[in-house]
Design a protein that fits this description.
homodimer, alpha+beta, Alpha-D-Glucose-1,6-Bisphosphate, Chain A, domain 4, seven-stranded antiparallel β-sheet, 7 strands
């Protein structure tokens, strides 16, 4: 029942959602690999000097997406979410509001729950890359923006592209 | 990517989850119809004297499931959730933690968020019916139990069976 097309069918609400759209010069197949294989996700996923030191991916709706990120001063952020949509090389959706197996996540809800969707579309020899973060309220959206969503996800995408070119 | 089989693959945690299992004498096709078509859901969905006066169903992962329930003293409960798994005549999963389109639900999260799964398996001429409600913490589970999950969902199921026999 997953979507087989790639239409921008998400109702974007500018007060609740953050969007990053870029055209990058690696094909969707390599971007997909970088997002869905732990060994290929960890090298680029955090804007440096943060590092992703652990990653678990069970790539199916209801499956686990976990990353452990570590900062230069010893900070760490261990986040576990649940995949919702998996359309190879086209669309990946997960949420921090649910744990794997779809159970509501107490930890995700205490923080700033969001649902993220990565949409990939071929463009020339590259990819039109759209990342969308949907929040439950304006406060969550503002908090995510203040945490540096655009800069952070943008910088991570640059790291992804550098890494994925060698795939 | 939805499950095509019907294995009880949910990790039930007795401290977090509520389960109702019954064998009923209507086939899975009729139980499915009663759960997935608004005009066939409204007659049985609330234990009487409560009534379901409105129902919206967009039967696909990410689609809307909304019911408006009204009590005898004028109380009302308007709940909107999001379908996660739709396997015709076998399995239906939705959550109150997300709105349609997978956005985290502020209203769902303020209340007692839960994910519900209805599993249907043919048994003789009837159906083995399993309803599971998964909660994020023990408090949510206890609250749902105290609200009368077993009695309420059990009584609604009896109403479903009476109604579905005539389908």
């Amino acid at each position: 029942m997953a979507k087989s097309d790639n239409k921008p069918d998400i109702n974007i609400d500018p007060k609740l959602d953050l969007v990053l759209e870029r055209v990058v010069d690696v094909p969707p197949s390599k971007v997909w690999k970088a997002w869905t294989v732990p060994e290929h996700l960890m090298p680029w996923f955090c804007p440096k000097p943060w590092q992703t030191t652990e990653c678990e991916i069970d790539l199916r709706p209801g499956g686990k997406f976990r990353t452990l990120m570590r900062g230069p001063a010893g900070e760490s952020f261990d986040g576990t979410g649940c995949y919702l949509e998996v359309v190879p090389e086209r669309r990946l959706t997960w949420t921090s509001a649910l744990l794997p197996g779809y159970r509501p996540s107490a930890e995700g809800l205490r923080a700033m729950p969001f649902t993220a969707t990565i949409i990939l579309a071929p463009e020339g020899k590259g990819t039109r890359y759209t990342a969308i973060a949907q929040h439950m309220d304006e406060d969550g959206c503002k908090k995510h923006a203040a945490m540096g969503f655009t800069e952070g996800w943008g910088k991570a995408l640059e790291q992804l592209v550098d890494y994925a070119k060698a795939l």
